[in-house]
Write a structure and sequence with these properties.
One of its GO terms (molecular function) is serine-type endopeptidase activity. The protein has about 260 residues and is mainly β. The chain has two domains: about 100 residues, Thrombin, subunit H; about 100 residues, Thrombin, subunit H (Beta Barrel). The chain is built from two helices and 14 strands; from the N terminus they run E-E-E-E-E-E-E-E-E-E-H-E-E-E-E-H. The strands form two sheets. A seven-stranded antiparallel sheet has the order 6-5-2-3-4-8-7, covered by helices on one side. Strands 9-10-11-14-13-12 form a six-stranded antiparallel beta barrel. Strand 2 and strand 3 form a beta hairpin. The chain starts with about 25 loop residues before the first strand and ends in a 5-residue tail after the last helix. The protein binds 2-acetamido-2-deoxy-beta-D-glucopyranose (3 copies). The site of one 2-acetamido-2-deoxy-beta-D-glucopyranose has 4 residues, from loops.
């Protein structure tokens, strides 16, 4: 691919700017191969973030994907995000639950649960995402997979955007937090993944989507410094730190339909 690194010049949390970016590296995923992945769309139909279906009524995503419940539509069973394929299911959010520790200046605890107004139907195109147990980690170098529809539409043009996926190895917190990289800005609620040579990364529009290791959602695409930069891996919310919060939130809102 052409070098898109320079063009993708800001943190993943910038989701309002003109969408331009492809996922850096990687390739197109097979149709409906990642069935728990959902697209968060604005009411005008513009994809702006990814998410994972963790319960028929609940989507896991990043807190910085919060544009307001009224502005959002959740689409499951999507493949080409800008065209109707007949496999999609649509739901409006009923409530958004942002983690109480979320801090938008540090990106700490960048995690949000969305309860849907109506449950998604599980079928050949839609499934639930398996989560890691509370407190479990992934070793440095372990290869995980990040997927999403990271933007490639051209200023309002309706180019069909196909789901893309890349593999990335886990980078130790020590290295990611070192003065050679994010220099103290990595909290215990974050994990990093990327190649020391750069080139493959999540990017804008992938925010909120899953980083999958051993078939479980260990990360939620959160932020970075550019995309595909060798010095700066992608930073993900460490889902295993929030497993208890996820279960508790779903349980507490069981009857709140
Ligand atoms: C976010 O973190 C910064 C830096 O640690 C801190 O100064 C600020 O008070 C925090 N904001 C909230 C809302 O917790
Ligand atoms: C770390 O955070 C500080 C304060 O938010 C910021 O000025 C600095 O550029 C960040 N450094 C890196 C490498 O991200
Ligand atoms: C990252 O470095 C900062 C500054 O040294 C430190 O306060 C923080 O605890 C470190 N993060 C982790 C997860 O160890």
């Amino acid at each position: 691919m052409v070098n898109l690194v320079e063009k993708c010049i800001y943190v993943l949390s910038v989701i309002y700017t003109v969408p331009r970016e492809y996922k850096i590296g990687g390739h197109t995923a097979a149709p409906n191969s990642i069935r728990y992945l959902v697209s968060l769309k604005s009411t005008s139909g513009q994809h702006f973030c990814g998410g994972s279906l963790v319960h028929r009524y609940w989507v896991l995503t990043a807190a910085h994907c919060n544009i307001g419940a009224e502005q959002m539509m959740i689409v499951a069973g999507d493949y080409k995000v800008n065209i109707f394929e007949g496999t999609e299911q649509y739901a409006k959010p009923r409530i958004l639950v942002i983690h109480p520790l979320y801090n938008r200046s540090t990106n700490n605890a960048d995690i949000m649960l969305i309860k849907l107004r109506a449950p998604m139907v599980l079928n050949k195109y839609v499934s639930l995402a398996p989560l890691p147990r509370q407190g479990t980690g992934v070793a440095e170098g372990h290869v995980c997979r990040v997927s999403g529809w990271g933007y490639n539409s051209l200023e309002g043009g309706q180019v069909p955007v196909t789901l893309r996926t890349v593999t990335v190895p886990i980078v130790s917190t020590a290295r990611c937090n070192s003065s050679d990289s994010f220099n103290g800005n990595i909290t215990a609620n974050m994990i990093c993944a990327g190649y020391s040579t750069g080139g493959k990364d999540a990017c804008k529009g992938d925010s909120g989507g899953p980083l999958v290791c051993d078939r479980r959602i260990y990360g939620v695409v959160s932020w970075g410094n550019g995309c595909g930069d060798a010095k700066f891996p992608g930073v993900y919310t460490a889902v295993s730190r929030f497993r208890r919060w996820i279960d508790q939130t779903i349980y507490e809102n069981m009857t709140n339909t």
